[in-house]
Write a structure and sequence with these properties.
This protein has 601 residues and is an alpha/beta fold. It has two domains: 21-336, Purple Acid Phosphatase, chain A, domain 2 (4-Layer Sandwich), CATH 3.60.21; 342-462 and 525-592, 5'-Nucleotidase, C-terminal domain (5'-nucleotidase,  domain 2), CATH 3.90.780.10. Helices cover 27% and strands 21% of the residues. Bound molecules: ligand LLZGTKA7. Residues 22-246 form the Calcineurin-like phosphoesterase domain.
């Protein structure tokens, strides 16, 4: 753990369902190598995870079972360790590679920018040679300029102790927002490729593992399941997914399941399978598949209280020398980036989705009503004389603000992306005011976003489209507390708020028994009005339409639906390329800045 991490709180725990083959799974780490330094439940760091995996591997070796470690992408963007270093990612590759990962793939965040994809090619792929798979992802090699698979398409391997013969594929969803140095092949086209058709004919296998940066309830995984089943009618198939930032488990059929393990190093997914056939090993001949295959899952809260318990270690015996060195390297990286530098003190918590929107404790209400108007009314040239509308997407805001110190760390956790603002001057107000509605309604733009597999709101909100139980309704706010989980009462430790996952296997997946936290939906975009009152009779004829450049194509499309044809040539950079990250930080210094040594509690 990092020295400033809060100590985990004792809580009632469920055991790991250890079996013949076991997996540890991370996804959507987004650079949170240092763990959560304001939340005790997720306060373990990548070094602790290195120690934990070592102990579980030793346990597997001792009892003759196997353990495989999987990561399904989006390791970058979302944390100051990645986003504030120059070059971005300076420390990330060195930290990530310290974990022994058996199966690893790319997410969409590895591909948004050309240089990030090159980082994969030059660092992560060679660092995880033999483990990195790219079944539907190519890159124009920075060395030769030629298009080539980012990594091998698939691999077949045999587990160390049991001799389980595994055929593995590593996918990414049908992502369309990648920079032009990579090519993501749609899954529906990949399954028609000769190499894929040949690979899945192999009968000398005991298990197929499909892992990737893909929502486990997506069309892509449904198609892969159907295609595999049409050739391998009863071979067990284990899917690992990601991208939607949630804990989830899907049962495809009696021999096939899928696990998704959350986000931001909050969750270590544990998966186990019993009853698999095996090839011969030095200890035994081939073993036949049992009549019934048993699958089990557990979502481990990423803290050392859970890790000590599940590894059978204590504070003294848990940290390995390797793990300690990794934690030290993370600490040194954090120090060199000066991440504890304080810009101000947040007077209370502001939530991405733990409060309805609008709400005085919603981060979006804070941005819409205060941060953007108070900053932009000062800077904006207000070209049209009548004011401006500013539109930004909610998905650009990645994390909550907690009461207390707002540091360099906080700045990048909340707003890691580099996009600046652009504007179109003199847009008819009648048209401009339609934009927010068009972007947020279930109309033609939502349909087009769906076709392009694009979202503008947080991935957790998107996940709820297929899992409505994830979100509470603002009308019944706080009424549904703990509706799924039996809260334990008795002599043991008390429960406290945290994940209470409901998945295809029920409500007993989380290792830590929590009371429920409510989450609410938020729209695609929010809008601030600058320089005039919408309730006023004297509304402007024209306004400057300012927007986050990341959503430019959707702004132009929405304008087209209002009958106003603009192209990117009509747009201009606003504020000399100042990003929302900068705007927010300046606002925090001005409004929450204090000379006090400590933030008030
Ligand atoms: O530069 C960017 C990149 C992404 N976004 C938004 O992030 C989410 C998607 O996040 P995942 O972690 O890939 O699920 C989505 O809302 C994007 O629109 C962004 O705003 N800016």
């Amino acid at each position: 753990v990092q020295p400033e991490a809060p100590s985990p709180v004792a809580a009632p725990l469920r055991e790991l369902p250890w079996a013949q083959l076991n997996f540890l799974h991370t996804t959507d780490v987004h650079g949170w190598w240092g763990g959560h330094l304001q939340e005790a439940s997720y306060s373990a760091d990548w070094g602790d995870y290195v120690s934990f995996a070592r102990h579980l591997r030793d346990k597997a070796d001792a009892d003759g079972s196997d353990l495989l470690v999987v990561d399904t992408g989006d390791r970058v963007e979302g944390n100051a360790i990645y986003d504030s270093s120059k070059p971005r990612g300076k420390f990330t590759y060195e930290i990530a590679k310290e974990q022994h990962i058996d199966l690893i793939s790319s997410g969409n965040h590895e591909l948004y920018k050309a240089e990030t994809a090159e980082g994969e090619y030059l660092h992560t792929v060679p660092d995880f040679k033999g483990s990195y798979l790219a079944s539907n992802l190519d890159i124009y090699s920075p060395k030769t300029g030629k298009l080539e698979p980012l990594a091998p398409r698939y691999k077949k391997f045999t587990t160390k102790n049991q001799g389980i013969r595994i055929l593995a594929f590593g996918f990414i969803f049908d992502f369309t927002g990648n920079a032009n140095n990579t090519v993501v092949q749609k899954v529906e086209d990949t399954v028609k490729e000769e190499w894929f058709i040949d690979a899945i004919k192999d009968k000398e296998i005991d298990l197929i593992v499909v892992f990737g940066h893909v929502d486990i309830r997506s069309a892509e995984y449904a198609l892969l399941f159907k295609t595999l089943r049409s050739v391998q009618w009863d071979t067990p198939i284990q899917f690992f997914g990601g991208h939607s930032h949630i804990r989830d488990y899907k049962i495809f059929d009696g021999n096939s399941v899928a696990l998704e393990s959350g986000r931001y190093m909050e969750t270590l997914g544990f998966m186990s399978i019993d009853g698999l056939s095996t090839g011969a090993t030095k200890n035994h001949g081939p073993v036949a598949k049992k009549a019934e295959i048993t699958f089990a899952r557990r979502y481990i809260d990423n803290n050392v209280y859970s890790m000590h318990h599940h590894s059978g270690k204590d504070i003294e015996s848990f940290p390995t020398e390797h793990g300690l060195n990794v934690s030290k390297a993370i600490g040194e990286a954090r120090k060199s980036l000066d991440l504890t530098h304080r810009y101000g003190c947040a007077p209370r918590d502001f939530w991405v989705s733990r409060r309805p929107y609008p709400h005085h404790e919603s981060i979006f209400t804070l941005i819409e009503k205060k941060m953007l108007p108070q900053t932009m009314s000062k800077f904006n040239r207000l070209h049209s004389g009548g004011g401006a509308l500013v539109v930004t997407n909610t998905g650009a805001i990645r994390f909550d603000i907690f009461k207390g110190a707002f540091t360099k760390d906080t700045k990048f956790l909340v707003s890691p992306f580099t996009s600046g603002f652009r504007y179109i001057p003199d847009v008819s107000y009648k048209a401009a005011r339609q934009i927010i509605k068009l972007l947020n309604n279930e109309g033609p733009i939502a349909l087009e976003m769906m076709n392009q597999n694009t979202i503008l709101y947080p991935p957790e909100v998107h996940a709820a489209r297929y899992r409505p139980h994830l979100l509470s309704s603002p009308e019944t706010a706080y009424a549904g507390q703990a509706q799924w989980q039996q809260v334990l009462k008795g002599d043991g430790p008390e429960t406290f708020p945290g994940y209470t996952t409901k998945d295809d296997a029920g409500t007993d997946g989380d290792d830590t028994i929590h009371s429920q936290i409510e989450f609410y939906s938020v729209p695609n975009c929010i809008q601030s009005t600058i320089g005039f009152e919408t309730e006023d009779d004297r509304l402007p004829e024209t306004v400057d339409l300012i927007y986050n450049e990341f959503i430019q194509k959707w702004i132009l499309l929405a304008l087209e639906y209002t009958g106003q044809k603009y192209t990117s040539d009509d747009t201009k950079s606003w504020g000399g390329g100042k990003s929302f990250t900068d705007i927010m930080t300046d606002w925090v210094e001005e409004h929450w800045g204090t000379k006090e040594e400590k933030c008030p509690t």
